[in-house]
Structures are given as C-alpha cells and as structure tokens.
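Field reference: sequence -> structure
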Amino acid sequence: MSLLSVKPRRRKAKGAGVSSGRLSTVTWVQRLGLGQPEVRAWVMYDWANSAFITTVVAAVFPVYFSTVAAATLPPAVATAYFATATTIALGVIALLAPFLGALADVAAVRKKLLAVFLGIGVLATAGLFFVRYGDWRLAAVLFIFANIGASGSFIFYDALLPHVARDEEMDRVSTAGYALGYCGGGVLLALNLAWVQYPSIFGLPDAAAAARLAFLSVAVWWLGFSLPLFYWVTEPPQQLEADERAGTGLLRLAVTRLGETLRALRVYKHAFLLLLAFLMYNDGIGTIIRMAAAYGTEVGLPPGALIAAILLVQFIGIPCSFLFGGLAEWLGAKNGILLALVVYTVVSIVGYFMTEVWHFYILALLIGMVQGGSQALSRSLFARLVPRYKSSEFFGFFAICEKIAGIFGPAIFAGMSLATGSSRTAILAVILFFVVGGGLLLLVDVAEGQQVARAIDAQVLMQNAYQDTSDRKQHGNLLR
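Structure field:
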C-alpha cells in the first residue's frame, strides 16, 4: 500500500489532553503539506540545495571570485569570465534537459540520475575549498560543474513531485518545499556571512579562509540533507507506451519518446502554454533578482543594507511560501501566480522611485512575500498539467524555460540603462514581462489540461497492466 493512502490514526492515550495534543500536531503538519514521511523527505532536498543557491551562486562566491580567485585579472575581465562560466553551465543543462528527462522516465532512473548530478554538484562545490589567490581557471571550471550538478538535479527532483503528492496536495507540498528552502538556505547563509565578516571570532585567519570554509560547509549541508529523499521516496515504476517494448535500447526509446512529445504539442497545449507564460514572467522575476543588488549599488545603498535585504528576502519567504499554499486552495494556483505578478509590478514601480535605504527594504519585503510562492505554484501547476509517467521529460522542458529566463530581461535592462543613462527607466520596462506572462497564463485552462494529462496516465497504466497480464500468461504457458 502506498504511504499516500495511509491516514494518521488517533492512538489511545492515558489522558485526553495527550491525544488531542497529538492530533492537533498532526493536523498542523498536514496543513503545511508535510503530513507524509516521503513528502517530508522530498521537501528536504529544497532545504539542502538552497544553501548552494544562496551562498555559492548569490552571495559569497561571486565576491570571492572577483576579489581572490580572479584578483590577478582586470575587474571587467573577471566579471566577464564569471558571467561566461554561468552561461556555459546553464546552456549545457538547457540543451540536455529534455533528453535526460525522457531517459529518466523510460528507464525509471529518476533517483539515480538525481544522485549522479547531486554528486557532481557536491564534489565541485567542495572543490572550491582549494581555490586560492589567482586560481580563476580552477574556480571557473568548478563553478561550471557545480551549477550543472545543481541544475541537473532539479529536473529529477521536480519530476518526483507528482509521484509523492496527489493533485490536490501539490500546491501545499511545492510551497512547503520552497519555504524550507528559504529556511535552509537562509540559516547557512547567515552563518557563512558571519564567518566572512567576523573571521577572528570563529578562529579563522581572514575572510578568504572563511569563504573557503563556507564552500565546504555548503557541500556537506547539501549532501547530508539530501539523504532522506533517497531513503523515503520510492522510484516511480517504469511505464511504457503502447508502441514501446521493454528490452529496446533505452537511448533510442528516450529519443523516440521526446520526438513524439514534440509532435503532439496540441495534445498538451495547456502545459506548453503555461511554459510560455512561465518563460515570460519568470524572466521578469529573474531580472529583478539578478539586478536588485547592482541597482541598489547604483543608487548609493551601502553594502550592509544589500546583505541585510538578501537575508530579509530569505526569511520573509518562509512564512509567505507556506501562506501561498493555503492561498492556492482558496483562489487556485493560477490566480495565486497572477496575484504574485501584480505584486512584482508594484515592485518595479517602487524601484523606479527608490531613493532611501528603507525603500530597498520595502522592495525586499515585497519580493520575499511572493518570490517563493510564485515559483512554487508554477511548479505544482505544471505538474498537474503533465502525465505522471512523463514527468521528468516535461520538467526537462520546464528546466529549459528556467535557464533561458533571465536572458532577455537583463538584456533589455542593460539596453534601457545605456540608452537613458539610468536604470530607473529600465526597471519599469521589466513590467512588460509580467504583463505578457500574465496574459498567456490567463489562456491556460487548468481543468482541461489536468483532465487530458490524467486520461493519458490512465490509458498508459491500463496498457501496462494488460501487457503484464499477457506476459504472465505467456510465461505460464511456457512452463507447461
């Protein structure tokens, strides 16, 4: 029996207070979307990998690369090399994601491929500990592999969502994952920043040594908190389509299935329409995230305020992500995303008029309120619109949109800044992405898309059950 079908039983206790207290605790956990052990194990991977995003991608490593690893290079060259390393990593995953997803589905190896990319990411991140003054080549290569590992693992992690949660649970489970991700990433980032800013208090010789220790701590954190997923979450069974047979070359099966999906876009029109919407509005979200610190520096905000704002986003995101799970039950995931896009539009307007430090804190507060919720609901809504047996393949396409998002927005931002001599007009231009993305999202018929996805799932399950029965009968006849 699946763990998803087991309901918590009320145990007899010596006192009524104990029983009611236990029952209220279980209900509280369930209301957060964390009622089952495999769900809790699944969301812990968000807790685990977010440390890499906050410490390595966002806060500590970019500064370490510029001031230590690439200190022998001109600043502009160092920045260009860092941007190139990021582009290479995201480009590799964007190219491989759909094929890797299809392979994971046809071979039933989602967890194994997640483990492979997790290993690549953890080893590369741990390797950053050995990067010292002037080692910019080693730093760039390790950063590329660390990003490939992290981004690749997200494909298979996200693809497990529809297998650990029922349709009605996906919004809460997905938002719970983002909430724990904010918490995990924020806790370790706060500790890492304390090491870097006050190394002597922790017995460290300098900030560079503290940064290297921070990279090692991320690798240990990422690996350690990923282990529950591999213990509790079961690998979904292999489900082959009517024209697919076990024993056929897996690579051929993956390529064939991927081609069939691309030719059948009209069947999955609402899933792919959501992908287009996500590509647009997530580009706007990514632009705000990537350019916020640079914009704050341009208008004269002190570095301490920027760091405080990053931490504020992390910790505000914890309760607000949970709240978005409840909001989705009330308004629906689609309307929850649209509400978040309205808030992001307000962020762009406030950013245009920003002149004081407290204005930036307001921006951080608004972003923290909706960032996790909008991305979590995008993930859960997409998971409901695709067949479960092809979840990895479709989340490969989802990964492409995530990686491409952030290309056009920053380009427009840069162009507007150069044309006007200020980033104030550029930040208003980001609103266009929210408007276009929201307009495409309005065209998504969630009920119809979900009905199509589940009908296809049922058809494939029936075909596999029939094939299993036929194989058993044939085997029985041979034994006679």
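Note: Confidence is low (pLDDT under 50) at residues 1-25, 475-480.
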